[in-house]
Specification:
The complex is a heterodimer of chains A (73) and B (302). Chain A is mainly α and 73 residues long. Chain A is built from three helices and one strand. Chain A is elongated, with a radius of gyration of 21 Å. Chain B has two domains: 2-112, no CATH class; 121-300, no CATH class. A seven-stranded antiparallel sheet of chain B has the order 5-4-10-9-8-7-6. A two-stranded antiparallel sheet of chain B has the order 2-3. The chains are: A mainly alpha (73), B alpha+beta (302).
Chain lengths: 73, 302
């Protein structure tokens, strides 16, 4: 299984076996900058958002998920 | 994660939400349960949607007036529909205020209030599949899923911060990190590890000559049903200055096997390498509680 062999080789290279190795791996996982969806000024409190919408005469746009849409989903 | 990288990455959608709406994100698990003004307003909005009933999920996208009158409500991932409905709603006259703007009601159901621990720290948590034996066929949907970054937040309590400043890694922090953050959340809501599924979890600090600490550790996690496991090595760096933690950079990576009910769509076909990175959040920027904090006592180990 060439694919599995490649996977195992990759896996062995991607483990932070030396404490000094972790920085490259950290950079590979965590985003370096802002992603596109982060340009949206999301609010996380419904009552505060409703008050802001009322004050600005705008509509609410609500994105609801089981698990926070900006978190672990 | 899929929606963040697709529907809400569309420039037209971003522009509409930036200029024509007050955009809001919520975890329905809290909103359908809380018995306070926010919960009442949430339920007022979502249960106006066609076909809704109390036994259906309230997940979805909603356009509403500030007093809770539904303008549009739907639940699918069609980016074109999202843009079209946003554009249509933004083209009608803006709603008149139905009540005078005033202070936000202060009553909050304490059972569902989640705020970071006083005197503690919040770390951003990112998760990514680093290597997998992916099938050659790859749709745009697959491409997004394979590159997806899972996100969460780790809460560190005040007494744990004190221990870190003193150069001791708290066992309670190791256990929380293992159970609730060494998970594969790159494709949706993942199962957390039960207490009994933590086979091994060790983290240690070693003082360096420059006064910083290196972090090393291992974690072995395995589900009771033997259908999911993660064997990870941990490495990182901790820095403190004037009695405060200034740097907490940590990586856990290793072989992950299996998936959960809500993470099986697009999952790698076999074992894969999963990486989880932690770094201190910008103060005040992490308003979203950890997914594991739904059961707050369990999450905090209290």
């Amino acid at each position: 299984m060439p694919g599995m062999t490649a996977l195992l080789l990759c896996a062995s290279l991607l483990l932070p076996q030396e404490p000094t190795d972790f920085r490259a791996l950290h950079r590979q996982i965590a985003p370096a900058g802002t992603e596109a969806w982060e340009q949206i000024p999301w609010r996380t409190d419904l009552l505060e958002a409703a008050a802001a919408a009322r004050a600005s005469h705008q509509l609410l746009f609500l994105w609801s998920m089981n698990g926070h849409p900006l978190g672990c989903v | 994660m899929l929606d963040r990288a697709s529907s809400f990455a569309e420039p037209a959608v971003i522009a509409l939400l930036q200029t024509k709406f007050v955009p809001l994100v919520l975890d329905e698990w809290y909103e359908v349960r809380r018995q306070d003004a926010a919960g009442e307003l949430y339920r007022k909005i979502v249960f106006q949607r066609d076909g809704m009933s109390r036994d259906r999920t309230t997940q979805g996208l909603y356009i509403a007036t500030p007093d809770g009158t539904l303008v549009q409500g739907w639940n699918n991932r069609n980016p074109g529909k999202l843009e079209r409905l946003l554009a249509a709603a933004s083209s009608v006259p803006r709603p008149e205020a139905t009540a005078p703007a005033g202070d936000v009601p202060a009553n909050v159901d304490p059972r569902f209030a989640r705020t970071p621990p006083a005197g503690g720290l919040v770390a951003d948590v990112y998760t990514r599949v680093l290597a997998a034996d992916w099938p050659a066929e790859c749709s745009e949907h697959d491409r997004i899923l394979r590159a997806a970054i899972g996100r969460d937040h780790l809460w560190i309590q005040a007494d744990e911060v004190s221990q870190l400043v003193a150069g001791r890694w708290p066992d309670s922090l190791t256990h929380r990190l293992a159970r609730f953050h060494l998970i594969d959340n790159t494709r949706g809501e993942p199962p957390m590890w039960r207490d009994s599924e933590v086979t091994t979890a060790r983290v240690a600090l070693a003082r360096r000559g420059d006064g910083t600490w290196s972090i090393t550790g291992t974690a072995e996690l395995a589900s009771k049903a033997a259908d999911r496991s993660f064997r990870a090595q941990l490495a990182g760096e901790l820095r403190a200055h004037a009695g405060a933690i200034t740097t907490l950079d940590l990586v856990a990576s290793g072989e992950f096997r299996g998936h959960g009910t809500y993470t099986q769509n697009g999952a790698p076909p076999g074992p894969f390498t999963l990486g989880v990175a932690f770094r201190l959040a910008v103060p005040g920027a992490a308003a979203v509680p950890p997914q594991g904090a739904r059961d707050l006592r369990d999450y905090l180990g209290r």
